[in-house]
Design a protein that fits this description.
two-stranded antiparallel ribbon, binds S-adenosyl-L-homocysteine, Rossmann fold, alpha/beta, 2 domains
Length: about 270
Amino acid sequence: MRIVRTDKVRPKKSLGQHFLHDQHIAQRIVDALTLRDQRCAVLEIGPGMGVLTKYLIEKDIQLKLVEIDRDSVAYLHKHYPALGNNLIEGDFLELNSLDFFPNHFSIIGNFPYNISSQIFFKVLENRHQVDQVVCMLQKEVAERMAAKHGNKTYGILSVLLQAYYSIELLFKVPPGVFTPPPNVMSAVIRLERNARQSLECDEQLFVRVVKQGFNNRRKTLRNALKNLNLPAEVVGLKLLDQRAEQLSVDEFINLTRIIEGSRAASSH
Ligand code: SAH
């Protein structure tokens, strides 16, 4: 006999809701979390009907969840009453600070694809707390994040994220395991915070150099970075013959240091 569950959440397109129904994949995603300490802290973004939550609560972790959708929140409270106050109804992007955990924590989630880049910019802002992210994303976005220099898909988010995280594409997921199926392939990635405490350069300038470079990705960096009014000795650098996608993360950091150094020298 088929048991018909009538209280399921009706998926809302506007919230990027594609509910995973493959238990094996859900388990694999949760198992991809590297849990170093006992009772380590984990935040799930967008739990929906709890397909990951179900496996997360079996682990010895401190779990918090942020879900924007009232129907999903009601569903979760009904089916997982033990979540209690750890389930926060709200918009992850609007949270002023991620201070519900005292120190470091990991993030997990099958992210709403329409806001995945914004989620990562928020992760970057909070990189001193966020040790690890395991998430499902649109495959193309996942590949871009993990791409290395010299690759066509290497871009702004690849450089900014890889400056602080090592990124591994774990496995791909086909549309058919979701209700409703998305129009795109998905992939699961893991980001782990690297040892870099700081870039040892002006980090705002670093972001500007990376953004300007890739916003004109077909130009050489010499032309792409014109708006930055680089001093003549920097403009002459051989490095600037290249396009943004040819520079490694370390080279972007070095370039920023050189620009910073030459500006400091010329202001004396
Ligand atoms: N984890 C579930 C749902 C994935 S769909 C599963 O795998 O089946 C994405 C989820 O993110 C939905 O539940 C959606 O309501 C939620 N969501 C969308 N935007 C959000 C936001 N800004 N903050 C928190 N949750 C959000």
